[in-house]
Specification:
This protein is α+β, with helices and mostly antiparallel strands and about 325 residues long. It is globular and about 60 Å long. The two termini are about 35 Å apart.
Amino acid sequence: MTASLPQEVRDCFEHFVTTEFTTIDARQQPITWPVTPYYSPGGPTIDVTTGLGYPKKADDARRNPRVALLFSDPTGSGLKRKTAVLVQGAAEVDERDLDANAERYDRESTHKLPSVKRQRPPKFMRGPLRWYYARIYIMVRPERVFVWPDGDSRVEPQLLDTRLDEVRSGHAEEPLTPHAPAAGGEIAWDTRIDELGDRYPEAVLSWVAPDGFPLAVRLPVTVDRGTRRIRIDAEPAGLPLTEGRACLTAHSHSSNSGWGENFQLRGDLVAGDGGWELTPHKLIGGLEMPKGLKRYRTMAQYQWRFYKTARARLKARG
């Protein structure tokens, strides 16, 4: 499908440093993380990858192959036009040959981000870091593509698919997927939430559409400290917001991906008197590469937990 897409759309696939990748877990919770996309011009899929030590993205995509890729942060892409693209597609997970995947990752990532090569240890020293360098690939075959030529989600997107009216109306001809109710529970608060609206004036909101595919869009947000909720300051045009479980992801990275920071809030999306709000129930920090010496302390915190996960997965593979 991708060969027939407009060139500015394919440029996003090829040149963006990050894409916001959304999966749906077993509880119907959408989960969005920034990852690096890999795309060959005209190829049938857009690929992302995760490490053997933190495989949840891959496990969720295998369990439920309906996923989404949002290209909304052009930092480092070199593209002058602020085009934003949302891809809904079917995922296929590949972890058959971890060594071949590691070679592919080394080749593709250094080609896309040459500066990353200087940060990596030599191959003979990567044994203790196999939790990271043993890679699982997730290939996403596009089924529906939304395009915002100027990157403004408040303007109705161009829809590149045969089932466009279903998206606009919020209901599909296919059997609807049972929609998970709000998670409920206590409001969780964290000091990082205060970064929303200030350091992060926009964040990526993701939720599950009536047809079972995730939707994701970048929107302006502010924090209401009085009610301990996050206000969604604009509604996306042409996309049906739905009350229920949602995810709000904030992230930033350098132009060459030398550093990156991110976190997400999982909670309930509700329509309040003043507009849409997210009630946070859980804050989760991602695999980050902070600036300066802080990155080494951060990686040390991840090391043992991810190492154990990778070791258990290798043992299960026999």
